[in-house]
Glycoside hydrolase family 31 N-terminal domain-containing protein (Photinus pyralis), 671 residues
Amino acid sequence: MMPRTVILFCVVLSFSLPIKAAQLVSLIQGDVKLSISQESGKLLLTVVNGSTTKLTGEIGIRTADASSTACIDVPNCFEFGNNRLHVYQHIDYGFTILWTTNVLSKVFEDCFSLGDHHWFGGPERFQQAWPIEKLTLSNFANVLQEDQWGAIVEPYWLNSAGVYIFVDERVPLFINQNTATTQKKVCFSAKAVSPYPQSRQRVILHYTIGVQENARSAHLHAVKNFLGKPTGHPNYRIIERPIWSTWAKFKREVNDEVITAFAKEIVDNGYPNGQFELDDDWEDCYGALTFRQSKFSKITQTVQYIKSLNFTVSLWVHPFINIDCTKYLNLARNYGFLVKDLSGNDLTQWWNSKNREATYLDFTNIEVQEWFVARLKALQKAHGIDSFKFDAGETSWAPTISQLYGDVEKMPNVLSVDYVRTCARLGDLVEVRSAWKTQDLPIFVRMIDKDSNWGLSNGLYTLITTLFQMNLNGYSMVLPDMIGGNGYDGKPSAELFVRWLQANTFMPSIQFSYVPWEFTNAAFNVTQISRKFVDLHQKYAPYIRLQMERSIQEGHPVNAPIWWISPNDATALAMDTEYLLGDDLLVAPIIIQGATSRVVYLPAGEWVDGNNGSTYKGPIELRDYSAPIEVLPYFIKGSLIHNTTDSGSVTLYCVTPIVIFVTVTMVVITG
């Protein structure tokens, strides 16, 4: 019998067992839970509400790869070498993350997925894309800056799921979003490098994640805990009546005769009242705050004449002294009133100077604040000036890195804060353009200069999206820029001018420089159409003021995106070309060149067409709403009926007691 050879085949099965993540932090408030787990050298953060994931991210990038040890007797605190992470709760439904180190070369970075949510807030931008998940930010230093129009830069990100992230003002913050390495993510970094001073004693990344049911309730939560509410509103005169500026129309070609003729021209064309604003190039030299006699030898009489036409008169003012303004430059230098860099240099540049031919007043010095205000009040007393348009104020105009007074961890933005708060002392007719933690001030914050075009490049489209950006950062007293833009690349067309005015009608104020009656060659009557919408704005001015008062009391935006009244509506959350006035008036302007119709989306509710009285039950999409050049699509919510009488007065009758405008007297009655 032949021996049998047995060949055995052995199969070795290899199983890779998943590495279990170590949970470091688990904080719970009601149905809301924040978890931080450590897995493969990464710290993964998740926020859930019930079974719904509202936010995910990776925190401690390039920090969490080190081994961690728990802090002694401090809950939810961990040390990663010289770096410490502390997670805690100090507000209802809010979780605070604090990274800290005394190693000044350390960079902290926490990143969050933008996911499929829409996002709101963020910085003011030249190309103000909305919602802001469309924005690209590359190593963006969160300081007020002229670059790309960053005059309002609150560190606030709000999403459509009802979560917001608010970064503390002491963080030397840089933001990356949608870059090559941060696609569909927003990353908040802390690093002690320019433009932040390196004299700080620590580096921190400190922010709070707030969680609510939806974007509306989350925003009101942020207003209550971080953004704050306005304490008052601008003077009703410049809400109801237009502001007339010399800037876009005349640029620097102004003198007694020019502005006298302009004021008379406005009145002769049927626009008495309002505020007359004398813009650039009235000073002896930039920073003098005295009138140049070669241009304004009769300025006191000129102001008296303009005021006799029932205008208030305001002057354009800035925070600079140019080096050829030697009298005031020498005085400011002698008293230490100028911003200096670390080497003692006080020279800088702005748009009305060449490089190293200007200086910036140091408003963190209380003596500068008092000197500035005293000089402006003397100007008012000498010539009868009523108010001021305060320009600039961004920190980036100052020498880098600036020596300033106050808390080093709040620099350099404290320079802008102190400038704006100083300006606000001059009354309720003033306007500023920079804003940082000044939502409480009862004054207009102006959109930075718009260009005379239709699109995303700082044109008509961005009039609406910048309105959203400002309101959703807590600045509800918005002064839109001039009708038709500033004309830097040429005067606006008649069509652009009219559509811009229409889009502006239900915003807080109207500001002209180009005027309706100068478009004499248009195929339509610009003067007549413009009058219609100026009158419409005036008639709704009491309702605008009512919304400002509501903002003061409750923190609501004056002009919100339409999702504000329907925060779970996916179409409303994505909308970037319609806006609200209060909760009951929806505006859908034409913002595309040559268009005479548009798609209008109405969220849930009963809506009445402001032009023809037609009624609609939302949510509904009006696919081809006709809007020839004389028509602005707008709709009133709440079973309101809109009528226009022969005299042109607007009367609103309310079936459910929301708001009633009483004809002629325009008394506002709330039910």
Remarks:
- The chain has a mean pLDDT of 92.
